[in-house]
Design a protein that fits this description.
Layout (H helix, E strand, L loop, with lengths): L1 H4 L5 E7 L11 E7 L3 H9 L7 E4 L5 E3 L4 E7 L7 E4 L2 E5 L4 H10 L2 E2 L11 H7 L2 E2 L2 E2 L4 E8 L4 E5 L4 E3 L2 E3 L4 E9 L1 E2 L2 H18 L19 H7 L6 E2 L2 E3 L7 E3 L5 H19 L8 E3 L4
Parallel strand pairs: 2-5, 3-5, 4-20
Antiparallel strand pairs: 1-2, 6-7, 7-15, 8-16, 9-10, 11-12, 11-15, 13-14, 17-18, 18-19
Length: 296
């Protein structure tokens, strides 16, 4: 990749520790770590990656567990870049590096209703699109009108929302295409009402979730007709610990890092919680967090 580096305008690093880029504060090194300058720079970078190179997209690193052995591929970091956001009537177009909370606040300020739930998602818009993130009874793809994707060859494609298979916490995109921006369509509302709603939702979140400790959001998907947190709590697993990883006393569907956890501690605790919930309730919990990389 040395021949192309002079053309790139972003920042390329090698053997970058991912522990500083994930909300659990754990994880080994990425072989390559690239922060693009803008969408055109990203397209150029992708077009010149080896065809077999594994690629990991990284926003704020919530909803992600990187193993201690790191990631033997290229990480594309969008947080702090790809930050464009534009409001036109009742449509909000944002690039994937924009924080979800910023979309919530700016759409509220513009008098649009529907986006307040995004304030409760602790990540970037790209992550919310990729997993159909939701909170407070709403989901991202309820509001998606269209998206722009980039292919491994660096081609940009405009696609309608109807071209994607969207389910609870999962979105099926064409192979080797990734989101770079999307347009959300909201209803017209009242700016003050929406601002008050955001404050209420954030107060609720801070009261019920361990937002002041390193964690990755909800660990497990809610099974049909039930809540993962309820099942874990009724199995009396709050406070269960492996190494520095602990099932939160505040919300049972969160695992927190006391500052000393390894990724292996967290992964072992995830498996132990699954095992105990299956034994006691006969329900197999599915992780919502993505676990990637090599074991140490």
């Amino acid at each position: 990749m040395t021949a192309m580096q002079s053309q790139l305008r972003g920042e390329l690093r090698f053997n970058e520790s991912l522990s500083g880029h994930t909300s659990w504060r754990v994880g080994g090194n990425a072989h390559r770590f690239y922060q693009p300058k803008d969408i055109e720079d990203l397209a150029l970078f992708l077009s010149q990656l080896p065809a077999t190179e594994p690629v990991l997209w990284l926003g704020l690193g919530s909803n992600l567990l990187v193993r201690d052995g790191g990631f033997a591929g290229t990480v594309i970091a969008t947080a702090g870049t790809l930050q464009e956001i534009e409001i036109d009537g009742n449509e909000v177009t944002a690039e994937v590096g924009v924080y979800c909370s910023k979309i919530a606040k700016q759409s509220a300020r513009a008098g649009l209703a529907g986006g307040a739930f995004l304030a409760g998602i602790p990540g970037t818009f790209g992550g919310a699109l990729a997993m159909n993130a939701g909170a407070h009874g709403s989901e991202t793809w309820q509001f998606v009108k269209s998206v722009t994707t980039v292919s491994r060859a660096g081609e940009l494609n405009n696609r309608e929302a109807s071209e994607f298979e969207v389910n609870y916490r999962s979105v099926k995109a064409p192979k080797d295409e990734w989101f770079v921006s999307a347009t959300l369509q909201f209803e017209n509302g009242d700016a003050q009402t929406e601002a008050d709603l955001i404050k209420t939702l954030l107060r609720k979140r801070n009261a019920s979730q361990p937002t002041n400790q390193p964690c990755a959001g909800s660990v497990f998907r809610n099974p049909p007709g039930d809540f993962a947190g309820r099942l874990i709590e009724s199995a009396e697993l709050k406070g269960l610990r492996i190494g520095g990883a602990i099932v939160s006393e505040k919300h049972a569907n969160f695992i927190v890092n006391d500052g000393t956890a390894s990724a292996a501690d967290i992964e072992s605790l995830i498996k132990l919680v699954q095992q105990k919930v299956t034994e006691q309730h006969g329900v197999e919990l599915t992780p919502e967090v993505h676990i990637i990389g090599e074991h140490a």
